[in-house]
User: What shape does this take?
Amino acid sequence: MRSNRSKAILPLLLGVAVLSGCATRPVPLTVAPVSLPVAVAPTMPAGGYPGMPIPAVGADGFYATPNRALSPAAAVWHLRAGLNVAALACRGPEDAVLVARYNAVLARQRGVLRDAEIATAAEYRAGGGTDWRASYDNAMTSLYNFFSQGFAREAFCATAARTLADSEGVAPAAFAAFAAERLPLLDQAFTDFYRRYDAWRAPQSVVARYVPTVAVARIELRNVSALPDPQGQEVRGPVSPRALASAQTTR
Assistant: This one.
């Protein structure tokens, strides 16, 4: 009777020894990918060059362009100037359509544009003394030069083309509101470039890019119950995070 019981106990003891051997054997653990910050400096935007003059950012957070802080009449007149530059400088498959739409604006909004020019000139006359005409002419020259800057040509022309297309359904009574809405979009073609350029030249302009990395570690499981298989079969391959946490708490 004692001999049979010994024979029955022996395999169990052997099994415990096998399980213990499996449980203490180092098991490779694949840790989930971790994102580590890598400093990457921005590149100079296309069309820029070192030392390029860029308008300063005002207290309101916007760049000081010729199209900031305008009266409704001046916004209309500045929009016309921008669309005029587009009709002269933008070239592509649709350039004939763009020119035709600009000429249509001149005809459809004739009275609005005339009144806008008179009112804008009056603003310079009121604040410029005897030299107001020279100030006005210089301001208009600067405005045309601003819209003619080549580094933003592609974005500027695309925005001008959309503006001219949308202008076809605008009545004269609504054109001032239309100008107030669309002039900042023409301006944005240039200010977007300024922001990219400032990001490139700023000493502190380093951005964090998160690059996935994979780490591999080895652990020893000393508690068989922590294994995914309660029968204690040998674990091969990666160990789940849940099994790792359980093993760490039961050591």
Remarks:
- The first strand starts at residue 27 and ends at 30.
